[in-house]
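Anyone up for a design puzzle?
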């Protein structure tokens, strides 16, 4: 079984001068060695111990400093709480209050937001990456370590089995965000599953572009680092193409929206990814939301295989993941995890279930909601309808909370209709909803087509569908849907 702490200690001992991460400066990439990375982790861990900190919140864009702080918190045995940078100050304050954070560490980009948070929580202790005060404490830690104080690397691991190590808030696309209590064992399960399926190796280069305040981004970062692969730190997804070029990435971990953005940029620069980038991309692992078939085909035509991964915050991003050996099945959500410690199942109602170390401990301070999500046998109810074929490929057919149950008893999956409509030419985005009583199905479509052309396309679609699945009402929009930072359409927007 994967041991995250020991993998870091091993890299420190056996590969001290090898690159752990790459950071950008101008148009160049600079390596941070495993010795420097783990020394910096040890310094933060010493400060955590010296000041008896129990819960640290992190607010900032992807950065080397953010990752150092997260690893130090994790391996010090305290609770670390990543905070979404897109939420307002009032919501940041609410989350800090809920988790009883001792300390907030933030980047300079969010100085103004932190001032607002401090006005709501006047007793909040906070430190900014790179500030004089922060550097003073870091220097004190380095002096103490040089004077002979033991570091985390010379002591037994501080992580207790089963303890809460992270509280990650759900995206809240359809309900109030919940703080999900997760363990290091859950991260280790994702790392081991990714290692088995993807063959991540030391010295491979990828990107740290997924937001580190989402569980998918966090787990991917640890999967790369634990295996000695080198993530290039990309704080701004809008510079994705530039980052792929600068860091010479071998493969990528993205959400569907970013896969589509990258495909469009590659198309403008060449007939294939190899021609545009000067080197091939081995594969892209797409997760966080369903991958549109059109996006898959676009990347395939550019010579890049797009693999799928499926999981939830509550399952530490793990349920199924494709293999990079060429066996991936387009349209599936990957193959169920190969870990013997994780059990996947489908309920008699057709809901996907998971049991094992990756399942959350529960929702923070919400035992009732936890009990409604994790049953007495330890199975996490994903809230997604789906099935698993004989080869272990997982298919997600719809979100239970979005399923439209008509007054006739018929069930309609909005996602199924959305996927069909997305195949229509020049349809960019679709959101389908329905009214159970009137049995009216509505499709909101983002497209640049004329209204007349859209309605003719919908008439054609309806002609191929049973009566109860036909679209009754169409709304045309000329601007993209608002999305969460994980790439999901924000419901009702």
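Challenge accepted. My sequence:
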């Amino acid at each position: 079984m994967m041991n995250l702490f020991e993998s870091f200690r091993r890299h420190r001992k056996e590969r001290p001068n090898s690159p752990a991460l790459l950071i950008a400066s101008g148009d160049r990439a600079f390596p941070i060695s495993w010795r420097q990375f783990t020394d910096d982790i040890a310094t933060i861990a010493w400060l955590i111990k010296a000041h008896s900190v129990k819960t640290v919140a992190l607010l900032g864009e992807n950065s080397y400093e953010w990752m150092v702080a997260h690893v130090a918190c994790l391996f010090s045995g305290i609770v670390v709480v990543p905070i979404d940078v897109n939420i307002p100050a009032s919501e940041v304050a609410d989350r800090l209050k809920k988790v009883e954070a001792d300390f907030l560490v933030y980047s300079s980009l969010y100085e103004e937001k932190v001032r607002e948070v401090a006005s709501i929580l006047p007793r909040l202790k906070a430190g900014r990456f790179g500030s004089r005060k922060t550097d003073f404490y870091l220097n004190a830690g380095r002096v103490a370590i040089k004077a002979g104080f033991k570091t985390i690397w010379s002591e037994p691991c501080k992580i207790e089995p089963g303890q809460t190590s992270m509280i990650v808030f759900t995206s809240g696309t359809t309900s109030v965000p919940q703080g999900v209590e997760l363990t290091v064992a859950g991260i280790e399960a994702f790392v081991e599953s990714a290692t088995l399926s993807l063959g991540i190796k030391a010295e491979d280069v990828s990107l740290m572009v997924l937001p580190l305040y989402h569980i998918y981004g966090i787990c991917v970062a640890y999967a790369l680092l634990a295996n000695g692969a080198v993530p290039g730190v990309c704080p701004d997804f809008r510079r994705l193409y530039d980052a792929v070029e600068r860091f010479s990435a071998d493969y990528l971990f993205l959400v569907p929206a970013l896969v589509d953005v990258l495909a469009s940029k590659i198309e403008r620069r060449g007939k294939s990814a190899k021609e545009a980038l000067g080197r091939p991309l081995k594969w892209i692992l797409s997760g966080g939301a369903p991958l549109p078939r059109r996006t898959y085909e676009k990347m395939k035509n550019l010579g890049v295989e797009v693999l799928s991964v499926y999981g939830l915050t509550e399952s530490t991003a793990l349920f199924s993941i494709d293999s990079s050996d060429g066996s991936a099945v387009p349209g599936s959500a990957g193959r169920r995890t190969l870990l013997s410690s994780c059990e996947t199942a489908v309920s008699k109602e057709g809901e996907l279930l998971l049991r094992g170390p990756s399942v959350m401990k529960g929702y923070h301070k919400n035992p009732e909601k936890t009990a409604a999500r994790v049953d007495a046998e330890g199975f996490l109810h994903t809230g997604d309808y789906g099935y698993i074929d004989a080869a272990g490929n997982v298919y997600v057919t719809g979100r239970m909370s979005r399923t439209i149950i008509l007054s006739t008893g018929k069930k309609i999956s909005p996602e199924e209709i959305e996927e069909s409509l997305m195949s229509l030419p020049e349809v960019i985005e679709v959101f389908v909803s329905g009214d159970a009583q009137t049995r009216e199905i509505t499709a909101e479509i983002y497209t640049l087509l004329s209204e007349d052309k859209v309605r003719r396309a919908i008439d054609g679609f309806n002609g191929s569908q049973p009566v109860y699945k036909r679209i009754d009402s169409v709304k045309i929009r000329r601007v993209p849907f608002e999305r969460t930072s994980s790439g999901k359409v924000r419901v009702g927007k």
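A detail worth pointing out: The mean pLDDT is 91.
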